[in-house]
Amino acid sequence: MHLWYCRTNRHTKENTMSYIKAEDVRSPRGAWALIQVLYDGGPSTDDEGAWSLCVGEWYGKRRLAARWNGQDEGGSAAGNPSARGYPTWFIVPPEFEEPLMAVVPADKLTLAKALLNQK
Question: Among residues 72, 41, 43, 70, which one has the least CA distance to residue 54?
Fold first, then answer.
């Protein structure tokens, strides 16, 4: 399944790419398996980059991952990082996991710590 969503701009008849939700970012395939999105800042705007945070398995080990989200219109729908146009996740180094947990919403914090075997 490809994760590109196209829509036609009714005024210009051009196809534009829509923002790809964090829960739909499944690459790099073969190395990564998404388990739970912990934070999704939504689409980026011209003024501010929005980002997302999740837990997944990187080559069979549970890891925290992050990414800059794409834009709804006028920019990259894939966000950053991306590979060959497909949105991907950046695997967070272990020493940054604990500080990033501070942005995880309270209702997902216990789950996130359990998934990452943190106390």
Answer: 41
Q: What is the pLDDT of residues 15-71, one digit of tens each?
A: 446 778 889 898 888 899 999 999 998 887 766 668 999 999 999 999 999 998 887
Closest CA to 89 of 20, 4, 27: 27
Threshold 0.85, pTM exceeds: no
Amino acid at 102: A
Pairing of strands 61-68, 82-83: unpaired
Token digits for 26?
């499944």
Helices of type H across the chain:
94-100, 106-115
CB 33 within 8 A of CB 55: no
User: How many Cβ atoms sit within 10 Å of the Cβ of residue 52?
Assistant: 22
**Structural contact between residues 87 and 79, judged by C-beta atoms closer than 8 angstroms:** yes
For residue 78, what is the DSSP state? Answer: S
Residues with Cβ < 8 Å from 94, sequence gap 6 or more? none
